[in-house]
Design a protein that fits this description.
GO terms for molecular function: oxidoreductase activity. With about 375 residues, the protein is an alpha+beta fold. The protein is built from 13 helices and 17 strands. It has two domains: about 100 residues, Outer Surface Protein A, domain 3, CATH 3.90.930; about 240 residues, NADH Oxidase (3-Layer(aba) Sandwich), CATH 3.40.109. The protein is about 30% helix and about 20% strand. Helix 7 packs across helix 12 and helix 8 packs antiparallel against helix 12.
């Protein structure tokens, strides 16, 4: 029998030594120096007899026993040429071991729903204290208060759904201050507050958020909005205002961050959203919670797109940006707050259609049936 080391493992150092994890299994295997040496000897394929002999006759029974255990654990795999190898699903071949292990670790979390333990766990979290602030502000920065008289969203839900498109071309016209204010409010600000029991007052925003934690923050690069000077701002939802971070930020800065995707910076404004992750981690303390900011970022993006559409604006969204560069641009600590989504909007350059289409799209030709 031939055996070989599995091509991809995830490793970590613990206080008691090195551990290895197989990407599609949740368990961790502690690797002694002897086991590490055995895996090195197995390499890309070796006969079991040859592998056992490499450690000396006196250790051969232990080597064979270790090989059997490592085969069961998936750390070693059979490499017999006469057998058809077991292939992993192609998606994990494409995404790699780290993504597969992440997927494995985040499955089947116990949320303690309808469990007596739920209240006890919540009480422990609250008693521990240290809850992160639910609002982020830059109190030392110049503030641009936004209008609180919002534009009525008179378009019907049906019309808005039918008209929602991703726009990649804009007319270059400025966006009015009231429409801009209305879009930021409905996308990122709380509409009301409710009592969250042990966790205190919680926000009610249009977008769903795991546990009402609302970890998504919005940074706005204004290009052409009536009444607002161009620059980079933080949107402060608690006071519905913009806080100026960098008055020199312009379209070119955004272009450099987003691989020069034109709709990222050619609209009237660009919104870079981040996740203040500890707002989630403080309450949800298991690996599955890492997924939650992804869901929430998507909720916010959809609210942004629908509200923009109802206001007659053309929305765009992308995750194609250089994360580290965006975080440096925003001046945030990527260990605590990281870039999640780029949104933009402007007056759309639309083509005729029912519903209206972006200028660079057309209806497909009719299908001809034989």
């Amino acid at each position: 029998m031939r055996v070989r080391r599995r091509e991809e493992l995830v490793c970590r150092w613990r206080a008691d030594g090195l551990e290895a994890g197989v990407p599609d299994r949740r368990q961790w295997i502690q690797l002694s120096p002897d086991l590490v040496k055995l895996l090195e000897q197995a390499g890309d394929g070796v006969e079991l007899d040859e592998l056992a002999a490499a450690f000396g006759a006196e250790h051969e029974p232990d080597v064979r026993k270790a090989v059997d255990a490592l085969l069961d654990l998936g750390v070693l795999v059979r490499d017999d040429t006469q057998e058809t190898p077991v292939r992993r699903p192609e998606l994990w071949e494409r995404w790699g071991a780290v993504a597969e292990r992440f997927h494995t670790e985040t499955r089947d979390a116990d949320y303690l729903v309808d469990s007596p333990e739920r209240a006890d766990v919540a009480a422990e979290i609250v008693e521990e204290g240290g809850a992160p602030n639910v609002f982020k502000e830059y109190p030392d920065r110049p503030v641009v208060p936004l209008p609180r008289k919002l534009v009525p969203l008179s378009a019907s839900v049906e019309e808005t759904f039918a008209a929602r498109r991703t726009h990649r071309a804009f007319t270059g016209q400025p966006v009015g201050l009231d429409a801009f204010s209305t879009l930021l409010f409905h996308t990122f600000a709380p509409h009301r507050f409710v009592h969250g029991g042990q966790f205190g007052t919680q926000q009610c925003r249009v977008s769903a958020s795991a546990g009402g934690r609302h970890e998504v923050e919005a940074y706005v690069v204004v290009h052409d909005v009536v009444g607002v000077a161009p620059g980079l701002y933080h949107y402060a939802p608690s006071r519905h205002a913009l806080e100026l971070l960098d008055g020199a930020a312009d379209r070119e800065r955004v272009a450099a961050l987003s691989y020069r995707q034109e709709p990222s910076y050619q609209g009237a404004f660009t919104v870079l959203t981040t996740a203040v992750a500890n707002r989630l981690a403080w309450k949800y303390r298991h690996p599955r919670a890492y997924r939650l900011w992804m869901y929430d970022a998507g909720h916010y993006a959809q609210t942004f797109a629908l509200a923009a559409t109802a206001l007659g604006l053309g929305p765009f969204q992308t995750v194609a940006f250089a994360d580290s560069e965006v975080e440096r641009f925003l001046g945030v600590d990527p260990a605590e707050e990281f870039a999640v989504y780029l949104l933009s909007a402007g007056v759309p350059d639309g083509a005729a259609g029912d519903p209206p289409l972006p200028s660079d799209f057309t209806f497909p030709p009719p299908t001809h049936l034989a």
